[in-house]
Amino acid sequence: MAIFSALAFILGLAVGSFLNCLIYRLPRRQKIAGRSRCPYCHQKIAWYDNFPLISFLLLKGRCRTCSRPISWRYPLVEFITATGFVFLVYFFSFPPAPSPLSSYINWLGVLALPFFLIIFSGLVVIFTTDLLYQSLPPQVIYFLTLVTFILLLASPPPQLFLHLFAATLAASFLAAIYFFTLGQGLGWGDIKLVFSLGLFLGWPAAITGVFLAFLTGAFVGIILILTGKARMKTAVPFAPFLILGTTIATFTNFSFWQFP
Predict the structure, then answer these.
(1) N or C: which end of the chain has fewer CB within 10 A?
(2) What is the widest separation between alpha-carbon atoms in the chain?
(3) DSSP state string for 218-232
(4) 124-149 pLDDT, tens per residue?
């Protein structure tokens, strides 16, 4: 188990480095291909300065050329991705049951772990871009939706219908809020994201995930207002709360409702 965890951590660091590239370039509509550059001096980063997490520590968090500080976002995303990979390997070794995680394991078998690694990686990008730039990358959302739908074709027939139903219901709920509030607080990106997450979670876990997102979002919003860090009309990124609710609904059997 220790060997698999170590390999998962190393793989997660490498993937996290690529996710940092997506997080920086997608909101700026830059090409994904190409060498990384310092955002200040625009000098290409040498290969020996591009080792995930290690290079940041060796360079003491500064660019080798211009000595400007490197954002803590880079090592943080790499470490979180690596840690997430380790936890996924652990959970797939000892899956909680019943849960959406155990359901995917039942019908996907060995494909379930790489599928969850892809979903997790995409959610890291979405979470971070919305938190930093209040922007959701549609390319990542569409990709996760497509991958989920394709793999759901391998599920028992009723499951595909239930997942599509959950995705449509969750997206319709957010769309109703969007039109009722005239687009204040929610955007079309959130609606697209909740459809993708609903397709992933299925019924009734998707509904649990959405309600948890609203509860945690409301709680954080109240805290920010009481501490003077936000006002009633301050825009707060909603995707991180959707992802948090999805995470809880994925790895637990927690539900607001029990259906026979």
Answers:
(1) C
(2) 63
(3) HHHHHHHHHTTS--T
(4) 999 999 989 888 999 999 999 999 99
Element spanning 178, H or E: helix 157-180
- What pTM was computed for the model? 0.89
Helices 205-226 and 157-180: crossing angle in degrees, nearest 10, is 30
Which of 40, 72, 94 lies at the terminal end of a domain, its last residue?
94
Identify the domain containing residue 58 by its residue range: 1-94
List the one residue out of 86, 15, 26, 96 whose CA is nearest residue 53.
15
Are the C-beta atoms of residues 255 and 212 closer than 8 Å to each other? Answer: no
- 62 backbone dihedrals φ, ψ, rounded to 5°: -135, 150
Place of tokens 């995409």: 122
AA letter at 248: I
- Spatial distance between the Cα atoms of 26 and 140, rounded to a whole number of angstroms: 9
Residues 139 and 241 in one domain: yes
Residue 11 CA, distance from chain mean position? 17
Number of domains in the chain: 2
What is the dihedral sign for C-alpha 207, 209, 215, 220? negative
pLDDT digits (tens, 9 = 90+) for 165-199: 999 999 998 888 888 877 666 788 889 999 999 99
- How many Å apart are CA 259 and CA 122, to the nearest integer? 30
Indicate the length of the chain as a whole number. 260
CA separation for the pair 209, 196 (Å, rounded): 12
DSSP 91-146: HHHS--SSSHHHHHHHHHGGGHHHHHHHHHHHHHHHHHHHHHHS---HHHHHHHHH
Phi-psi region of 109 (alpha: psi -120 to 50; beta: other; left: phi over 0): left
